[in-house]
Structures
1.
Amino acid sequence: MVKESEASGGLEWRINMPDGSSKILVPESMPRTRVCGALQGVLMGFLSNFWGFIHKAWNLGLNDPKKFFHCIKVGLALCLVSVFYYMRPLYHGVGGNAMWAVMTVVVVFEYTVGATLCKCVNRTIGTCLAGALGVGVHWIASQSGDFEPIVLQVSVFLLAAAATFSRFIPSVKARFDYGAMIFILTFSLVSVSGYRVEKLFELAHERLSTIAIGTSICVITTMLFFPVWAGSELHNLIKNNMEKLADSLDGCVADYFANDVNANNVKTEAPNKILLGYKCVLGSNATEESLANFARWEPAHGGFNFGHPWKEYLKVGASLRSCAYCIEALNGSINSGAKAPDVLKAHFSKFCLRLSSSSSAVVKELSTVINTMTKSTKIHLLVQEMNNAVQELQNALKSFSEQSITSVTVPKLEESDNGAVKAKTSPALVQIVALVTVSSLLMEIAARTEEIAEAVNSLAKKAEFKVESDEKSKQIHNPKALTR
């Protein structure tokens, strides 16, 4: 039988005994059950999170195998440098500072070859320069007698302050920031420890040897085993940004004129990933500057010679972001509350769609130029076609402004208090302005697309891109040859 408990306000179970009395059943195993259930929940949650982490890590390795190979290279470099610590002859050769070589590999090894070379060169130059100055200051301080601590402290203060100030200089910070930090660290260690250490030259020699061993292993490993070049990463980033920009432009305009596009049996596919592709372009500024800085340290590789104009890639990236800002404004105008009448959208759709398609065609062709590192012979024709589309849209806007728009919107008239009749602004006028804004932004995008073409042409000229073969050029200028 079940009876309501007055003490707990819940339910309790009773069992009837043979003598007619009843006994309350107390769940003695309830605390144990609750503890087991809690532990089981914690264990299942941990296993679920751990499995989710493994699944994400596996997908990351499949999507970008370079990261997986980078992890293998770091492990390989550490194994190679550890040999100097495990093998007794090598250990005695570098002294008890063999662990500095391991620390050098951990600190210096980076994802790209350029970043690794940059840190290796900075660490080597900073260590050598600081070591030489430290030994020189130590000799001068030792000749000053009782003033040795004062000379050492003054030298540490002046050189550390000067090196720290140099890190605020943009040109030094971009390329030698790590070297300045290593200079401060090494000089301070050599100057301070030299006051108590007798064999200063031997200590400096061992430190330099271990750093040379660590940096050499890093350079050899990163360049010989699945190298990831910063120049190639920058090259591919600019190319991918161009493709994303062209897809975003097509997607925004096709989404705005969706009804008209479907009426003309044109396939429209503008998912959010494509529509928001321009945001990747807007957020790639820091990555481009970092890759361009590291690419300058790399030797000639692939199609990139020594002294490749990496700064021109930054100009192309700046032009892409300038165009992406216009696409962002276009997307905001399209998603605003004001909607143009269907009659006007049907009238302007063909002009706007042609302009957007011609602009995206120019950007895609420029992407092909970057990808193949070959000068295009039809880019001028595509730019001319884009300018013709701009002229047609301008003529359509001019003819529309000269025509009477009473068929689209009738101004509402109202009488004021003094009896005068005045026109009241119609809501349809805002809708017309929205369509004109979209058209103006498309024309501005076309102008900035032309700037992208100029930046790519400058890059192709300075990088000495190849020229398309004569047969392909003839086919482009003679369309009949394609049908033969």
Note: The two ends are 96 Å apart (CA to CA).
2.
Amino acid sequence: MFQTLRTSLLSSARCWDTDSERSYQSLFDRLDTNKDGKVDVAELRAGLKAMGIFRHGAAQKIVSSGDQNKDGYLDFNEFTKYLKEHEKKLWLTFKSLDRNNDGRIDATEIQQSLAELGMDVSKVDALKILKSMDIDRTMMVDWNEWRDHFLLCPAHDLEEIIRYWKHSSVLDIGDSLAIPDEFTDEEKNSGVWWKQLVAGAAAGSVSRTGTAPLDRVKVFMQVHSTKAKPISVIGGFRQMIVEGGLASLWRGNGINVLKIAPETAIKFMAYEQYKKLLTSEGKKIEAHKRFMAGSMAGATAQTAIYPMEVLKTRLTLRKTGQYTGMFGCAKTILRKEGVIAFYKGYIPNLLGIIPYAGIDLAVYETLKNAWLAYYAKDTANPGVLVLLGCGTISSTCGQLASYPLALVRTRMQAQASLGGSDQPSMSTLLKNIVAKDGFFGLYRGILPNFMKVIPAVSISYVVYEYMKTGLGI
């Protein structure tokens, strides 16, 4: 049904023929449901949804791009100019995919083009992508089919077109171990990249603040809960509220939010440099090199901001009146324990990056491809809800793999503040935990960690979308 409706709406809207003006007018009239001579975001969104090409944020982006007088609407002249400019860009992308210049794109050409962008897709997956655009079922896509498919999609170059098949960077669950997002050359040159980073940082700040009580009870359980003296989630909340009141549930959140911006910026800049080092000039980075670059960028960012991680743990666990604040805490640690204390737990933290990022990406791609294989019929775009679901599950699996290392890291960061003179190494601490609490002792506090995933993902996604709109992305 979607394919038929899309064809009927777009089939007459050919850019380079004598009837183009009349064709655009027909399409405009169909979208202008209230017949006021203008198309707003709501009308365009409804039209996209009716054609089965709805994508979150697409209507807003199209109106923002074509709205020359900034009145929030597209009149017919603005609509026509936007479509003509957009088609020119789509034509260039189509030609870059059409490697044998026969005027058609087949699955092999799609597979080769994606491989050059570091996306290794199977022939089956390439056929699925082709099928989503193949209106006449010839298993080949000509210019008209390509144009019909992307005419009302704001993406135009190849990297932008495949972006919604990739992992979104907005899923901030408070553990910034994932591979950084990538930006096109156009986004870097236009300055859009920093707006995206700002939007991501704002989303992370609100998300972490919203889930801070769960994060604090997680750390509390990691450090204080044992097999002999177990602490439940409710019990942990009760103890913290009795000791410091309701506001104490947000202890350590200030520095947790404060470290987002430098960590994001360092990770992004390091990622770009590592990609250049691992790839020959003029060539696209391969998938395994992208993973290596991302892991090294994460390690670089963690090394730079790690003292803030230690401060966050100490401030999260502090008792009322123990420190005067962030700087007071830093002075106390420096005076009593020396500079080395700011890197306690650094090794398990670094080791946790590889399993987290690797499993996160692997599970994400597996789930997304499985959904496409079993449920997708006329599209290769799973949609926002499916991608968010895949991202939530993959992040959870990544946490499961790296959580024992995260627990050891937190214990090592907190050791001196607990008053004990014994400072065991990572391996000794692991052995002690397993000996006293068994294997499941390595997962103390994981329940509140799981509880915060869905609200953290939801909050960060919503705030990210609002920030992007506010920043004009």
Note: Confidence is low (pLDDT under 50) at residues 1-18, 164-169.
